[in-house]
Amino acid sequence: MSMEVDPQKGIIVAKKSLATTDLYKVNMSHKSVVSILIFTLFSCTFIQPGNTARILAVETFAGKSHWNFMRAVLRALTDNGHNVTVFTPFVDGNRVNYTEIDMSSMFKMKLAMNIVKMRELFSDQFTPASFMLKLGRHSCDVLSKNDQLNDILANKLETDFDAIIFEPGIISGCLTYLGANSTLPVIHTSPVPVNTYTERITYGDVHNPATVSTMLFKSAIPRTFVQRLTNTLVFLYISTITRFQEFLLQVIESKPYDLSTVTPPSLVFTNTHFISDKARPTPSNVVNVGGIHLKPPKKIPQCV
């Protein structure tokens, strides 16, 4: 503080010195910095840290094409830091964040199949329905006999994992027992880019067969009245027959997995893409990842 005389008024005026003013500004600056730090630390207590998920995956079919899609989805998850434990008949080897449990001895492997016989089997829309229904229930039988998987589903699923991912099947809905009676998020994978007969289980609804082709229909898009009518009748017929057949199996040969409560999936990773697939309604829980299993192109060797 300094004292000066005002020549005009003839009085003594008290003024703050420059050093005092600077000190006052420094103190205010320090208080502002401290306040900002306290506010930042207080705000950070409400921010939840990002955690990786522990995922249980189950490959439900011993078909290499099915596994190629599932493997690519699991690879994307592990590359992003998630920890995956997978039951699979196709063993690639463990790696960081990835643990395999071999089931190749329990499944009848679908490898090197005769393409001529497969074309004959799937040449019409009715013959393959019963075959795929039996195939789905066979997968349920195989999985239900795996003691290690049963122990996880019964005792460790809620405590050791954060989500479960599997392929729900094409016609039979029995495979949904894997995620039944659980509070964990359920994720489905669909390697088949066409509409299957488990849509109601997977999506909670079915596409309109008058506008969207069903599985094995010979036209990608039903355009004419005859095609739309035929597609609708085929869908109703196969849906009714397969549901009735599965109902009889549940009554005559009831299995433990038939008593499970279906849990709707939180997400569905489907092998479709808007570039290569026809336009159709997409449910809100569907994530299109078509082509995720494709490898980067390479140059054609000169010796070919």
Q: What's the layout of helices and strands?
A:
Elements: E1 2-6, E2 11-15, H1 18-44, E3 54-58, H2 64-79, E4 83-88, E5 98-102, H3 115-121, H4 127-144, H5 147-160, E6 163-166, E7 186-190, H6 199-203, H7 225-252, E8 267-270, E9 286-288
Parallel strand pairs: 3-4, 3-6, 4-5, 6-7, 7-8, 8-9
Antiparallel strand pairs: 1-2
3D structure, described in words:
The protein has a single domain, classed as Rossmann fold (3-Layer(aba) Sandwich). The protein starts with a strand and ends in a 16-residue tail after the last strand. The chain has 304 residues and is α/β, with parallel strands linked by helices. A seven-stranded parallel sheet has the order 5-4-3-6-7-8-9, with helices on both faces. 38% of the residues lie in helices and 14% in strands. The longest helix has 28 residues, at 225-252.
